[in-house]
Write a structure and sequence with these properties.
single chain; about 500 residues; mainly alpha; two-stranded antiparallel ribbon; 21 helices; 6 strands; about 60% helix
Length: about 500
């Protein structure tokens, strides 16, 4: 199949999914399927707007559906519009988007090397970057508006589990047969072949940018599946799925993702909800302040390097190379710390012959070099702040374990952003769901997410969502009388109040 044909046809496929499934589930299917199946390195490049790739097209299709269908807007738990009500969240979004203008205004100079000349940035470039950043965080707005409630959080965990179980068959095929699916289906290989030969076998890429992203996806899915098992959701199925996903994760041959899973999984099993939220907030805080902690020498790199050397000398050398590249890129970034150097390779370091001498791996050092502290604080703040405030307000908000599992998954993904560049729309969706839960506060969590299918069948379309020990805390109530227009009969149905 032509990669461009897949991208052009995805809005129609998404519209069909959004029409057939209830809205929260349809959003997850569109996002997960688009992320896992669409081709990388290809984009639809319209004039005056950033290129639309596999990350942007599903999100823009969902936003178009929200704008065009009033029933979807009315079904959202948060009725205050797309933008967050929190002034802090609005400030972080403004810092990220408007910071792009600052990047353009402070990078009007040309960069001349023996091999090429990079022109200075213009206001047009700043506006384009700002639009690109706005599209990047659209899943935050979708998650905040439509996935704020506890039952929506559980739905995200379930979709993670099922999607990973299905995707594991493709990954295991490539473990045995080598990374060939993207070449067979789309006609090209998304990344270097040499980087995916590991331990006498192969590291799968399937349809993602790199095998590291495949491994991290399975690590997050394993955490979600064990979280569902810990909460008692279909324990037989989730236990088998967890074992299957754990084996798949090991076979994907990514030490970093395995270490993150080994760190988070015991927390999911042995920590209560309060401690789990605290752990997520602490990890997020460390990730947010990582550049400062690294510069101050508080990160024990020697111990990590020694541990990596015990496991595999090749991995230890790779880790050392990453640290050296980070030091070089940080020195470059400190020259323009607030708004960075901008895109188009301006933040890269070259030798006297104009050759690129660094390989940027960590997402954090990439965005600091491109957008400075403005972009770094904007992006990492949007991920960290909701976890911190959920812990601080845990008692008044009655945080459930579903939310705690999502928080620790987001924290695990943030750990991966230190050595790798595994930022995805799924990461932003989880962050948006936590922002939405924070805004709902102590409101009644028995309200489910409305299907949003606009059938207009009944005056009351909700059903009670799952609540642990509900009967032990609340006495049974008499159900209100509701008039159903479809069969013109008086029925008793659960009320959302």
């Amino acid at each position: 199949m032509s990669p461009m044909l897949a991208l052009y046809s995805w809005p129609a496929i998404s519209a069909f999914i959004l029409n057939k499934l209830r809205f929260p589930l349809a959003v997850l299917v569109v996002l997960f399927a688009g992320y896992l199946l669409l081709p990388v390195k290809y984009a639809i490049d319209f004039p005056m707007i950033p290129p639309m790739d596999k990350h942007a097209i599903p999100v823009m299709t969902i936003m178009a559906a929200v704008v065009l269908m009033s029933s979807l807007r009315e079904s959202a738990p948060n009725q205050s519009g797309l933008l967050p009500k929190s002034l802090l969240a609005q400030g972080l979004i403004a810092l990220l988007v408007l910071g792009a203008i600052g990047t353009a205004m402070t990078n009007g100079d040309r960069i001349v090397t023996p091999l090429e000349v990079k022109n200075g940035l213009r206001l047009y470039d700043g506006i384009s970057m700002g639009i690109n950043y706005a599209i990047l965080i659209l899943p935050v707005l979708i998650g905040r508006k439509y996935f704020a409630r506890t039952d929506a959080h559980r739905l995200i965990l379930i979709v993670f589990c099922i999607a990973a179980c299905c995707y594991s068959f493709l990954a295991l095929f490539e473990v045995r047969m080598s990374p060939q699916l993207n070449r067979w289906f789309y006609g090209f290989s998304p990344h270097s072949w040499r980087q995916h030969v590991r331990g006498g076998g192969f590291r799968p890429m399937v349809f993602l940018e790199h095998g590291l992203r495949v491994s991290m996806f399975f690590a997050l899915a394993l955490i979600a599946t064990l979280g569902l098992f810990r909460m008692g959701w279909k324990p037989g199925f989730t236990l088998l799925a967890a074992g299957w996903l754990a084996a798949t994760l090991v076979l994907t041959k990514s030490l970093g993702a395995v270490i993150i899973a080994l760190l988070i999984v015991p927390m999911v099993f042995f920590l209560n909800t309060r401690a789990l939220i605290l752990a997520a907030a602490v990890i997020g805080g460390i990730a947010l302040t990582y550049p400062v902690l690294r510069s101050a020498g508080f990160i024990p790199y020697e111990r990590v390097l020694a541990l990596a050397a015990k496991v595999d000398e090749q991995r230890a050398r790779s880790f050392t190379t990453r640290l050296e590249n980070e030091d070089i890129l940080l020195d470059r970034a400190t020259a323009r710390p607030i708004f960075g150097w901008g895109g188009f390779g301006r933040s890269r370091v070259r030798d006297e012959k104009g050759r690129d001498i660094v390989i940027p791996d960590g997402y954090w050092v990439i965005i600091i070099g491109v957008g400075g502290w403005a972009r770094y604080i904007g992006e990492f703040g949007l991920m960290t702040v909701p976890m911190v405030f959920l812990f601080l307000r845990r008692r008044e908000m009655k945080i459930t374990r579903d939310t705690a599992i999502l928080s620790i998954m987001l924290a695990g993904n943030m750990i991966d952003l230190i050595p790798n560049s595994g930022q995805t729309p799924l990461t932003w969706l989880i962050a948006g769901a936590l922002w939405g839960r924070l805004e709902l506060g102590a409101k009644d969590q028995e309200d489910p997410v409305d299907g949003g299918n606009g059938d207009g069948g009944s005056d009351v379309k909700s059903v009670p969502s799952y609540t642990r020990d509900f009967g032990a805390r609340h006495p049974p109530r008499k159900l209100p009388v509701v008039y159903d227009r479809r069969d013109r009969q008086i029925k008793r149905r659960p009320s959302m109040f």
